[in-house]
Structure formats: structure tokens, C-alpha cells
């Protein structure tokens, strides 16, 4: 919930997302909670700034678009 709240308030400079080749299923914690836009146009927009492979994981760096 903290991540979603910070994004909604515009307090995020960048968002680092790690993707691992593991499947956790629908009982896993959501990456971002507390953001429920009524349409895609109202959802926070991000720009992909970097992709880095770290071992078998991938790190994505996103920057907010104002």
C-alpha cells in the first residue's frame, strides 16, 4: 500500500521493478496496491528508462511522466 500511496501523491522519482523467473500465483502480494484508476487514461504513466539483467532476474527502471 505504501508504494501506491507514494505514486498517487507524486512522491516517486523512479520505480525499480525486478522480474524473477518464479511464478507466485494469485495469492502473492500485489506490486502496487491502492491505485484504482477508472480508465487507462487516468492511470499513472511511466517511461521505461533502463533494462538490466542481473543473473536470471531483470531490473526495469521507470520514470514518472507528468
Automatic annotation (TrEMBL):
Bacterial bifunctional deaminase-reductase C-terminal domain mapped to chain residues: 2-58
One Pfam family, short name: RibD_C
InterPro entries named in the record: DHFR-like_dom_sf, RibDG_C
Gene3D superfamilies reported for this sequence: Dihydrofolate Reductase, subunit A
Domain of life per record: Bacteria
Name of the featured protein: Dihydrofolate reductase family protein
Amino acid at each position: 500500500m505504501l508504494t501506491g500511496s507514494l505514486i498517487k501523491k507524486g512522491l516517486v522519482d523512479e520505480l525499480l521493478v525486478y522480474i524473477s523467473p518464479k511464478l507466485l500465483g494469485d495469492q502473492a502480494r500485489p506490486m502496487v496496491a491502492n491505485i484504482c484508476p477508472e480508465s487507462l487514461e487516468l492511470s499513472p504513466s511511466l517511461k521505461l528508462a533502463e533494462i538490466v539483467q542481473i543473473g536470471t532476474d531483470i531490473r526495469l527502471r521507470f520514470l514518472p511522466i507528468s
